[in-house]
Design brief:
Elements (H helix, E strand, L loop, with lengths): L2 E10 L3 E4 L11 E2 L25 E10 L2 E10 L2 E4 L4 E4 L3 E9 L11 E5 L4 H13 L4 E5 H6 L10 H16 L3 E5 L8 E3 L9 E3 L1 H4 L38 E5 L4 H16 L8 E6 L14 H11 L5 E6 L7 H10 L3 E5 L1 E3 L2 E4 L9 E4 L14 E5 L13 H7 L7 E5 L4 E2 L16 H15 L5 H15 L10 H9 L1 E4 L16
Parallel strand pairs: 9-10, 9-11, 11-14, 15-16, 15-17, 17-21, 21-22
Antiparallel strand pairs: 1-8, 2-7, 3-23, 4-5, 6-7, 12-13, 18-19, 19-20, 22-24
Helix pairs in contact: 1-5, 6-9, 9-10
């Protein structure tokens, strides 16, 4: 980090034109994963335009973040070698391009290393937090606990910020710069440790809650990323009443949350984490359960993809050392009973890909879009996998939603006694899935964009790249998503979905968790 990219120039070679005999069809819109079916093709007025699309040969953006635990500046250049002239129905293309990057170094640097792990909670959780710190330091993770009241009163650093959430974010910034913090655990529901309302409006819901707000601390030049660049106190605005904020979005620190509402819940979940990291793992850990079906009726595009099944198969592709346990709509194994039975056998990971709301996850058998099969909060009473705790990925809308009176499924499975999960990952808002194969590369768009893509990236980070720290695998998946699908803040039809995908994706769990633990047989 500390590199300022001043400009990027593109010089195409002699371009050529192709006159088309048919119009280029519009790209499909994304589908919400909330159990509501979406419509099909829309004819747009773009065909009356004289303007080329895209308007430039390249677009680019920079972001400051962490990768493999190291702070750096990311530069993403998005190249469009073809441009469409709608009114003329002509494609202009370039076979070769020269790219020039102009940059300079800034004096910003991060070198402190006093602590690795920052725990933030209400004062009443102090005793169990001290126990957790002793456990972490046993494995060489230098840890410190700070209460929310100490942050608000300025016990360590001068207080900055207009409200409690911003004061916590400024504290995290100071802790990174002066202590070298790599991981942050927020312990408490939003009534105890606040989150941030984000006003990224794609046309369906005005706002949602995000913890990425706390992780994205810096712009590439090292300045503070407030998520309120226009200063109107509506954070994370994109297409909101005509307003946009400029957010960096890349995590600068790995953040997780334990959304506990009581000391009893804190004690239960912390003890689960301690036992998970200490104990030896059996054969159960090498099992990976995947659950999927036919998410969308995609016949309008002339395809017949089983989107959930395609997504979980991509996840399995990265997990070559794990035994797959498939519960799929296409082979008749999809049932709530089978999900519960396999959950009780234990697994290292479970990947659910389909639809959701904050109390349930579900999907369809092939072509049967009126039938919903899945898992709900009431089914958790039948799950008793004891110490055989998986990391669970939920693909579906609102399944990790904060702020409800009844806690969401994604958190309930983590704070469940006598089993459940060691951590979960999901979306706090509407999430989105793509259909068709718009770029014609032979790969369904469900695994190349939005929810399905980012979920599979988590398994890529662990299974293929060997990142065995939970928060790092989670955060680096966000960074790779943004490097592949850069948010340019100038196209609310396209990159607003990417902005919402990363900012509503949340980790319920310890970001410093050693996946598989440190015990004998864990491989760590």
């Amino acid at each position: 980090m500390g590199i300022k990219v001043k400009s990027v120039e593109c010089i195409p070679d002699a371009t050529k034109n192709i006159t088309l005999t048919k119009k280029v069809i519009p790209a499909p819109s994304l589908h919400p994963l909330n159990k509501n079916q979406c419509s099909g093709l829309k004819e747009e007025r773009i065909y009356e335009s004289k303007e080329e699309y895209p308007s430039k040969w390249i677009t680019w953006r920079t972001g400051a973040g962490v990768k493999d635990g190291k702070h750096m500046t990311f530069l993403t250049i998005y190249i469009s070698p073809t441009r469409y002239k709608p009114l003329e129905n002509v494609i202009e293309y370039a076979s070769h391009m020269k790219i020039k990057i102009f940059y300079e170094k800034t004096p910003f640097s991060l070198s402190a290393d006093e602590y690795d792990f920052l725990l933030i909670s209400p004062p009443s959780y102090k005793k169990i937090m001290q126990k957790f710190i002793e456990h972490k330091e046993k494995y060489g993770i230098k840890s410190i606990w700070v209460s929310t009241q100490q942050i608000y009163k300025g016990s360590y650093f001068p207080v900055q910020g207009r409200d409690k959430a911003e004061k916590i974010k400024y504290f995290i910034k100071d802790a990174i710069e002066q202590w070298g913090i790599k991981y942050v655990l927020l312990v408490g529901g939003i009534g105890r440790v606040p989150t941030r309302k984000i006003y990224t409006y794609e046309g369906s819901e005005e706002y949602f809650l995000s913890d990425l707000y706390y992780a994205d601390v810096f712009y590439p030049d090292g300045s503070f990323s407030s998520w309120d660049s226009n200063g109107n106190s509506y954070f994370g605005e994109y297409n909101h009443s005509g307003n946009n904020d400029v957010m960096d979005l890349y995590p600068d620190v790995y953040v997780g949350r334990l959304a506990c509402r009581s000391i009893l819940e804190v004690s239960l979940v912390i003890n689960k984490i301690i036992s998970y990291e200490d104990m030896a793992k059996g054969d159960w850990f090498k099992r990976m359960i995947v659950v999927g079906g036919d998410s969308f009726n995609d016949s309008v595009w002339g395809t017949d993809y089983y989107e959930g099944e395609i997504t979980v198969e991509k996840s399995l592709e990265y997990m070559q050392n794990f035994t797959p346990v498939r519960i799929l709509g296409s082979d008749g194994s999809l049932s709530t009973e089978n999900i519960i039975n396999e959950f009780n056998e234990g697994a290292g990971f479970i990947d659910f890909e389909g639809h959701g709301n904050y109390l349930s996850w579900a999907t369809h058998p092939p072509h049967d879009y009126n039938t919903w099969i899945g898992l709900s909060v009431s089914d958790l009473y039948d799950i008793h996998n004891k110490e055989k705790l998986p990391i669970v990925i939920f693909g579906g809308c609102h399944i990790s939603e904060l702020g409800r009176f009844y806690e969401c499924l994604s958190w309930r499975v983590v704070r469940k006694a006598d089993g459940g999960a060691i951590a979960s990952i999901g979306f706090t808002s509407l999430s989105w899935g793509a259909d068709d194969d718009v770029n014609g590369n032979g790969k369904p768009d469900i695994i190349e964009y939005a929810s399905g893509y980012i979920d599979t990236l988590f398994f890529k980070k662990y299974g293929k790249e060997g990142i065995d720290v939970l928060g790092m695998a989670f955060g680096d998946a966000i960074a790779e998503y943004l490097n592949t699908c850069p948010v340019e803040w100038n196209n609310a039809f396209l990159d607003i979905w990417d902005c919402k995908t990363v900012s509503s994706w949340i980790l319920y769990g310890d970001p410093s968790l050693k996946i598989g633990g440190y015990g004998e047989g864990s491989g760590n």
